[in-house]
Backbone:
C-alpha cells in the first residue's frame, strides 16, 4: 500500500506482540484516503495520501457468569505503544460488566475473495481515477443552460482490514469506500426569482466515470423545481417513498431494534409479532454486492450471511454480535460491526468497539410495478423526493422532517412540486398501532441500492403532512 | 511522549522542508485522550478515548491547496506525508502567494479547572453513573436509563511558515441521562444532558431532583398526545433557539458559502432581518462553552463575532481565503474535524442573546400554538433558506396558557420569515448553551455549542 515493502497486516503484527492471559481480539486497519473537493467546476483542494494505520485491542474477562470487556485503540504500533494499549484495555475490562455467560470467538474464516467490495481501478490509481470520475460527473453540465454544479467532493478510502484473536483467527481483506457529495444550483427564468439547490450525499464501494453524470439532468430538474414549489396542504395523505429516502429512515430503526442489544433492553420486537404489511419481506445481507457494509466477515471475524428479519409481515430473526450472543446463549449472526453514530461509517472503524447492527438492509422487491404505477395506485398524495433529514429516533421509532422537494400526486399522476412543511410518522409500532411498516400499500418491482439499504419504492397508505393550512392561529 | 509539544522539533523540521517547496505551508498536529462510562441496568461499559494522534500538512500550490496527513508523528512518518505534498507540488504552477493574511500568533492556552473530571477515575464515574441510574429508575414505569459521563483532552499544535505557533489543550466534559419509560410495547424517553469546557463543575447539573424530573417526563410522554399540525405560533426553548441560531441561520453566515454563491444571506448583508430585540453571535471565546476554542486551525484566536446586531445582519464567519475575497478579516473560525479532515469555516458557540421577556409573557403573547422543547436535531439549507428543527417534546399553548404535553415534532419554514416573525426573547435567567456536534454536510464533525433563551415566532409544525 506504499512504495515501501508491504508489512504484514496490522492486527497480525500487534497480536504477535501481545502477552495477555485472557481472551483477546485485535481489529486493524491500514488505510489510504484521497479526496478531491471542487467549487463550481474548479478543484479547490486535493488531499492525499491521508495515511492511517491503527488497531483496536479488546480484552475479555470472565466474572462468574458475566463478562467484562475492555477496549483501547491506538495508532502507535511500537512495542511500547501496543503494550500501553493492551494494559489500558485490561484495566477497563476489570471495571466492565456485561451479562454474557459465555464467549465464543471465531477461530476460522471463510475465503475472503469473490465479494464485490473492491474497486480495483480505484485501488490501482486513486487520484487519477477520482479526477476521471469528476470529469464524467461534471461533463453533462456543458449541455445544461440553467443549472451549474455548486460544489462537491469525492472521498475515496482504500483499506486493508485485518482481524486476529486468541482463538487462532487470522483474516484480512481489502475494501474500498467512496463518499460522494454534489450540490446542483438552478437559476434563470423571471428576474428576481431565487436560485434553487438539490444536494445529494451518498456512500458506495465503486465509481464509474462512464456513468457518473447519468443522474445530473434529473438533479438539475429537482433544483429547478425547488424554485417554484409551494408548501403542501395539512392532512393525512398517501406518500410514495423512493429508496434513497427510505435509506435515511429504515436502517437506523430496524438496524437498532432487530438486535441483541435491543432485546437485552426490552426494545426489540417479539419474534413472530406482526409489525409490517403482509407482503413485506426484509433481510439483512452482510454479503450484498457492493454494499458499503458488506464483507466476508463482520468486524469480529464471524462469517457474514443473509438473515430474514421480517417475513410475511412478522418478526423473524434478530441480529447478534459475539457479546450479545453470549448473553442469550445463541450463535453470533455475523453482525458485530464497528462504526460511528453520526457521519459516514467509511473508515477509522478500528477506533470503535463492535456492536450488533444491520449491514445492508434489503427490502425485497414486490410486484406493484414502476414508480409511475405506484403514483397511479396512490391517486392523490405526495411523492417525497427529499427530506431535510429524517433523523429517525430508533427507540420510539419516530421519524420525519421538512420536505426539501416533493411532488403532489393528483389523479394518479406526478403533478406540481412541493417544498416546505413536514412529513412524519413512526417506522415500527406495537402490533395494532399504525406505522410506516404496517401501512405499506404497494411495493415497487425494482430495488435499488442506496447506502446501506437496497429497496424498491414503497407507497405508504398515509403519513401526517404539516403544511400551510390548519394548526393554531398566528 | 507526555505532551504533543514533544514532537515539535520533528514537525518544525518538516515545515522547514515544505517551506523550500511552497510559498506557504502549515501543519496542524493533534492528540486526543479521555475516559468515559456508559451505564444501564444490564451493563457497565467504561471506555478510554482512542490513543489517536497525527498531523495534517498543507501547502499552497498556486491555485489550490494540497494536503496530506499521517497518523505517525515520528520523523519518518511525517516524511511520507511531506513526500506526497512535494510530489503534487512538482506538477503545480506556483505563481502566487496564498489568499488572505497568514496568522502570526505565538501563544499557548490550556483548560485548567480546579477539579478536573479525570480525578474521578473510572471508579468515580461509575459511582456517579450508578447514583443517576438509581434516581431515574425510582420513578414508576421507568425500568431503565442510559447514563453517560465522560471527558476528553484534545491537544492541537499549529505551526506555519509565516511564524505562527499556537498550542492549545481543551478539556471537554459531558454527562447525559436518558430515562426509558415502558408501557406495553411503547417506549418513550426524555433526556437530560449538558457539556462544556472545564472540570467537575460541568457535571453539577446531575442532581437527584433534575434526574427524577426528567424521568417523570419520560413517563408522562407515554400518555402524551401527538403535536398539533400546520402553521402556528411557536416558542422555542433555549436549546431549540440555539439550534435555530446555528443550523438555520449560522450555516448561511459561513463565508465559504458566500464565496460559493451558496448563501441566501449573502445579498442581504447589512440589512435588517429581525426585530431590534434580536442579536445572534458566534463566540469561540465563550468561557466554558462546548464549542469554545482557544485558537483555530489557521492560528487565529477564537473570538466573538456579531452576526445579527439588534436585528441587523452585520457579519459573517471567515477563514483566510474568504477574508481576502470579501475584504474582511479572519474571525478565528477555521476548524478541522481532526488531523485527517480538511479545514472549513465552522461555527463555535452560536447563540441568540437574551431579551427582556418572561416565558409567561411569551406564552400569553402567543395565545395559541406550541412550545417546542428538547432539541434533537436540525439541518441547514444555506442556499434555499428553509429550516428544519426537531424536538423530543413540547406543550400546547391554548388561550395564553401551557396545556397538554405533546410528543416529538419537526418545525419547517423560511428562515427570513421566521426572523421577521420574532416577537420576543426571554431574559438572561433562561439563557444556556447546549453541547452538540456539527457536520459540514454529512461529515467533518466538530463540537459546537448552541444556545439562547425562549424565543417566540411562527412556523409550520408537524409530528416527526
Residues:
Amino acid at each position: 500500500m506504499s512504495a515501501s515493502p508491504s508489512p504484514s497486516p496490522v492486527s497480525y503484527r500487534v497480536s504477535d506482540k501481545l502477552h495477555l492471559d485472557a481472551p483477546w481480539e485485535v481489529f486493524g486497519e491500514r488505510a489510504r484516503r484521497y479526496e478531491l473537493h471542487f467549487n463550481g467546476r474548479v478543484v479547490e483542494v486535493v488531499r492525499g495520501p491521508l495515511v492511517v494505520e491503527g488497531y483496536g485491542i479488546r480484552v475479555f474477562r470472565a466474572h462468574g457468569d458475566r463478562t467484562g470487556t475492555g477496549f483501547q485503540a491506538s495508532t502507535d504500533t511500537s512495542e511500547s505503544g501496543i503494550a500501553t494499549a493492551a494494559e489500558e484495555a485490561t484495566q477497563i475490562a476489570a471495571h466492565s460488566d456485561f451479562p454474557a455467560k459465555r464467549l465464543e470467538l471465531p477461530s476460522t474464516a471463510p475465503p475472503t475473495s469473490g465479494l464485490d467490495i473492491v474497486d480495483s481501478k480505484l485501488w490501482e490509481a486513486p487520484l487519477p481515477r477520482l479526477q476521471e470520475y469528476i470529469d464524467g460527473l461534471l461533463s453533462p453540465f456543458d449541455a445544461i443552460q440553467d443549472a451549474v454544479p455548486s460544489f462537491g467532493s469525492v472521498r475515496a478510502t482504500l483499506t486493508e482490514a485485518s482481524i486476529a484473536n486468541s482463538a487462532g483467527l487470522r483474516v484480512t481483506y481489502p475494501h474500498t469506500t467512496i463518499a460522494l457529495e454534489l450540490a446542483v444550483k438552478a437559476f434563470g427564468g423571471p428576474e428576481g426569482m431565487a436560485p434553487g439547490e438539490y444536494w445529494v450525499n451518498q456512500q458506495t464501494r465503486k465509481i464509474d466515470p462512464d456513468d457518473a453524470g447519468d443522474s445530473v439532468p434529473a438533479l438539475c430538474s429537482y433544483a429547478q423545481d425547488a424554485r417554484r414549489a409551494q408548501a403542501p396542504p395539512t392532512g393525512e395523505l398517501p406518500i410514495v417513498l423512493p429508496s434513497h429516502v427510505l435509506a435515511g429512515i429504515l436502517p437506523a430503526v430496524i438496524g437498532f431494534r432487530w438486535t441483541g442489544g435491543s432485546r437485552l433492553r426490552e426494545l426489540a420486537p417479539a419474534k413472530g409479532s406482526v409489525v409490517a404489511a403482509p407482503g413485506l419481506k426484509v433481510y439483512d445481507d452482510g454479503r450484498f454486492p457492493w454494499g458499503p457494509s458488506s464483507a466476508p466477515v463482520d468486524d469480529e471475524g464471524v462469517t457474514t450471511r443473509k438473515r430474514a428479519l421480517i417475513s410475511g409481515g412478522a418478526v423473524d430473526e434478530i441480529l447478534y454480535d459475539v457479546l450479545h450472543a453470549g448473553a442469550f446463549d445463541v450463535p453470533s449472526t455475523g453482525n458485530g460491526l464497528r462504526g460511528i453514530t453520526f457521519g459516514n461509517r467509511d473508515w477509522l472503524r478500528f477506533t470503535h468497539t463492535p456492536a450488533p447492527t444491520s449491514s445492508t438492509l434489503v427490502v425485497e422487491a414486490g410486484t406493484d410495478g414502476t414508480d409511475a404505477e405506484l403514483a397511479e395506485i396512490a391517486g392523490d398524495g405526495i411523492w417525497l423526493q427529499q427530506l431535510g433529514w429524517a433523523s429517525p429516533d430508533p427507540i420510539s421509532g419516530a421519524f420525519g422532517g421538512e420536505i426539501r422537494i416533493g411532488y403532489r400526486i393528483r389523479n394518479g399522476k406526478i403533478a406540481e412540486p412541493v417544498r416546505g412543511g413536514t412529513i412524519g410518522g413512526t417506522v415500527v409500532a406495537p402490533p395494532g398501532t399504525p406505522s410506516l411498516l404496517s401501512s405499506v400499500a404497494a411495493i415497487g418491482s425494482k430495488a435499488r441500492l442506496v447506502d446501506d439499504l437496497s429497496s424498491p419504492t414503497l407507497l405508504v397508505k398515509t403519513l401526517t403532512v404539516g403544511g400551510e393550512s390548519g394548526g393554531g392561529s398566528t | 511522549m507526555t505532551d504533543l509539544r514533544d514532537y515539535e522539533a520533528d514537525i518544525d523540521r518538516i515545515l522547514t522542508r515544505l517551506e523550500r517547496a511552497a510559498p506557504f505551508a502549515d501543519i496542524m498536529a493533534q492528540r486526543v485522550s479521555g475516559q468515559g462510562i456508559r451505564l444501564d441496568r444490564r451493563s457497565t461499559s467504561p471506555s478510554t478515548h482512542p490513543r489517536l494522534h497525527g498531523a495534517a500538512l498543507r501547502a499552497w500550490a498556486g491555485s489550490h491547496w494540497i494536503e496530506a496527513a499521517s497518523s505517525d508523528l515520528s520523523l519518518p512518518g511525517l516524511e511520507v506525508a511531506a513526500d506526497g505534498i512535494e510530489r503534487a507540488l512538482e506538477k503545480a504552477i506556483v505563481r502566487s502567494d496564498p489568499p488572505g493574511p497568514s496568522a502570526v500568533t505565538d501563544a499557548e492556552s490550556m483548560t485548567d479547572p480546579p477539579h478536573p473530571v479525570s480525578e474521578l477515575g473510572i471508579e468515580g464515574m461509575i459511582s456517579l453513573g450508578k447514583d443517576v441510574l438509581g434516581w431515574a429508575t425510582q420513578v414508576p414505569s421507568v425500568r431503565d436509563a442510559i447514563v453517560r459521563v465522560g471527558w476528553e483532552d484534545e491537544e492541537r499544535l499549529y505551526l506555519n511558515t509565516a511564524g505562527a505557533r499556537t498550542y492549545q489543550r481543551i478539556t471537554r466534559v459531558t454527562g447525559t441521562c436518558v430515562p426509558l419509560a415502558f408501557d406495553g410495547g411503547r417506549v418513550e424517553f426524555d433526556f437530560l444532558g449538558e457539556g462544556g469546557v472545564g472540570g467537575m463543575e460541568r457535571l453539577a447539573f446531575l442532581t437527584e431532583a433534575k434526574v427524577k424530573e426528567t424521568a417523570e417526563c419520560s413517563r408522562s410522554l407515554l400518555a402524551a398526545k401527538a403535536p398539533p399540525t400546520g402553521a402556528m405560533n411557536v416558542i422555542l426553548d433555549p436549546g431549540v433557539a440555539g439550534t435555530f441560531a446555528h443550523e438555520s441561520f449560522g450555516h448561511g453566515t459561513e463565508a465559504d458559502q458566500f464565496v460559493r454563491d451558496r448563501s441566501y444571506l449573502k445579498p442581504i448583508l447589512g440589512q435588517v432581518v429581525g426585530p431590534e430585540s434580536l442579536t445572534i453571535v458566534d463566540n469561540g471565546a465563550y468561557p466554558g462553552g462546548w464549542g469554545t476554542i482557544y485558537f483555530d486551525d489557521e492560528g487565529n484566536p477564537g473570538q466573538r463575532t456579531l452576526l445579527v446586531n439588534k436585528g441587523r445582519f452585520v457579519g459573517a464567519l471567515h477563514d483566510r481565503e474568504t477574508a481576502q475575497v470579501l475584504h474582511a478579516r479572519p474571525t478565528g473560525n477555521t476548524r478541522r474535524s481532526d488531523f485527517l479532515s480538511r479545514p472549513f469555516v465552522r461555527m463555535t458557540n452560536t447563540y441568540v442573546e437574551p431579551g427582556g421577556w418572561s416565558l409567561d409573557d411569551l406564552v400569553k403573547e402567543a395565545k395559541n400554538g406550541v412550545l417546542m422543547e428538547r432539541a434533537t436535531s436540525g439541518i441547514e439549507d444555506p442556499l434555499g433558506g428553509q429550516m428544519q428543527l426537531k424536538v423530543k417534546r413540547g406543550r400546547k399553548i391554548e388561550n395564553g396558557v401551557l396545556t397538554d404535553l405533546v410528543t416529538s415534532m419537526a418545525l419547517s419554514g423560511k428562515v427570513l420569515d421566521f426572523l421577521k416573525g420574532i416577537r420576543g426573547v426571554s431574559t438572561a435567567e433562561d439563557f444556556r448553551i447546549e453541547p452538540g456536534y456539527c457536520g459540514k454536510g454529512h461529515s467533518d464533525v466538530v463540537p459546537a455549542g448552541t444556545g439562547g433563551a425562549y424565543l417566540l415566532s411562527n412556523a409550520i409544525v408537524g409530528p416527526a
